[in-house]
Design goal:
The protein has nine helices and seven strands, in the order ααααβαβαβαβαββαβ. It has about 300 residues and is of the alpha/beta class.
Length: about 300
Amino acid sequence: MASRHVRPADPLPLPPPMTTPDRAARAPRGQRLPADDPTLFELDLAGLAARWAEAMDRAPITAAEMTGTDAKAQRLGVSGGRLMEHAGTAVAATARGLMVAAAAASQATRPEATEHRGTGPVLVLCGPGNNGGDGFVAARRLAAHGIRVVVVLVSASSRPGTPNAARNWDRLGPVTLVERIHAPVARDIATLGQGIERAALVIDALLGTGVRGELREPIRTAVELCNRARAGGVPVLAVDTPTACDLTSGELSDPVVQADVTVTFHRPKKGLLTRRGRSVAGRVLVAPIGIPAQADRA
């Protein structure tokens, strides 16, 4: 499939992307974090935006600043596993909200096409790093709410490459509603594309930031599958950033995922506020993940 950086017509009448004023962050005292919020899965997208308004109102940062903040939070005693649990839970709640919005939009605009659409599982495409780890957590959380999930490790390696991601991949093994698949080569991804139009949702948890230029296989074919699904009316949710939009510059890889919604973490990211970033991110939500205020300080 030929790749383009021009955003195609949006199949879902979702709200426009977020804009963020340049404001200093407020202290997160009293803030309900995703994994500790028992009502999170009752909220639609607007409700999630309201619940996370404090994080969404913070001043935007670059990818490098986020990496430093994450590392400092862990030095202050917040475990990487706990940060991943909050991030993945936020992804799962956003996924549910997007599925509800997509179903309502489809029923309103194309009621004759809804008989089989969205009857399949959620497809979570995960890279080998911590972005993929967030996807593994999201899959477990979705299954806990009765949603069928197919989780695909898109990597030449048979195991994720970071300890927290590997731990959450292993936790999916006994989960009844989750099917795990390892896709080391492009043809494995192509096989998954058969009947993709019946998927309830596709989650892009392939890559975070730092990728430029042409993508390598099998990630490239996975990105093309995301875009083919979206062209067929399946909503696409990106984790942290669409694969691969640089969170600092907004520079786009070739190809790049076109998302309906992107959920990023802790603070807005400068790259998603650029013209190019906005063109692929869709609506942007910013979820808190438990990074303390001290970790934001220079």
